[in-house]
Design goal:
With 183 residues, the protein is of the alpha+beta class. It has one domain: endopeptidase fold (from Nostoc punctiforme) (Alpha-Beta Complex), CATH 3.90.1720.10. It has helices at residues 14-24, 61-73, 78-82, 117-127, 141-150, 168-178, and strands at residues 30-34, 40-45, 50-56, 84-91, 102-105, 131-133. Helix 4 (117-127) runs antiparallel to helix 5 and helix 4 (117-127) packs across helix 6 (168-178). The protein starts with 13 loop residues before the first helix and ends in a 5-residue tail after the last helix.
Amino acid sequence: MMIALPRQAPTMDYEEQVRDVVSNAQFGDLIEFAYPIGYSHWGVYDEDGHVIHFAVADEGQLKSRLRGYIQAVFPLCGDLLLGETQIRRQLVEDVNVPEGSHVMITNNRHARKPSPETNMRERRDALLDQELPYKLFSLNCEHFATFVRFGEAVCNQIPGRTKNLECKEATEVFQRIVTPDES
C-alpha cells in the first residue's frame, strides 16, 4: 500500500522572491529579508522596486577594506560590528544579503495599524540619508522600518524581549529627526 504524501508547493529562488515582492508590494509595506541563521533585515517598500533601509554608511577606502576583512570572518554580521548605518533607498534586488536568505512582504508581525500614507511619507522623507549608529537592542533596522510604517519603533526578533512592545528610545531618536525642535 502506497501512502500519498501531501504535495508541497515548489519554493521560489531568491530572484523569483524579489520579483514577487516588487510586483505585489505597495508603498509602506514592510519588507523582510530573512537570513538563514534566524534573524532578519527589515526595510520599507518605496515603490518602483525600491526599499528604504538601514544600509552601510559612506566610508573611505581604509574603512571599506576593514569592513571587507570583518565580513570575510563574520559574513552574516560584519556590517553590524562597525556600528554605522545610513538610511538609503536601494533596489530590492541590490540589498546585500547572505546566501540562503528569503525576501517577502511581512506586514502582520507587529500588532499595529499602519499609519496613513502621508505620515509614512513624511517620516521616510525626513529619515532618508540620515546616518545613525547601529544598536542591536535599541536602534536597528526593524525599529526603523516599523517607525516609518506605524510611527512607533518595534523589534520582535530579539530573544527574551517582550513582543510588540514599543522601543521608546528608538521612537524618540527617529521622532527628533522627523519633527526637530523649533527653538
